[in-house]
UniProtKB/TrEMBL annotation:
Organism: Hymenobacter negativus
Name the record gives this protein: Uncharacterized protein
C-alpha cells in the first residue's frame, strides 16, 4: 500500500471524529509544522501521512491506528 493510500484510508477512518482543535493542540505542543499545513492535512488538501498520524495523536489520543496504516520507516 502506498503512503497516499494509507493516508486516505486512515483519514476515512477518523475524519468524523478528528476535532479541528487537534491542529491548535499540536502547534501549541511544539509539533514542527505550521497551523496552515496541519489544517490542510486535516481536510485532505495536503496528503502527508506523518502529519495525519500526529494530528490523530493530539486529537484522538486513545485511537489505535492500525499498524498497516502507519508511515513506512526508512
Amino acid at each position: 500500500m502506498t503512503e497516499r493510500q494509507k493516508y486516505l484510508r486512515l483519514l476515512s477512518l477518523v475524519i468524523e471524529d478528528l476535532p479541528s482543535s487537534a491542529v491548535d493542540t499540536a502547534v501549541r505542543a511544539g509539533y514542527p509544522a505550521s497551523t496552515t499545513m496541519l489544517n490542510n492535512v486535516r481536510i485532505a488538501r495536503v496528503m502527508n501521512l506523518t502529519h495525519l498520524v500526529a494530528l490523530i495523536g493530539y486529537g484522538l489520543p486513545n485511537y489505535q491506528i492500525p499498524a498497516e496504516l502507519l508511515p513506512a520507516t526508512s
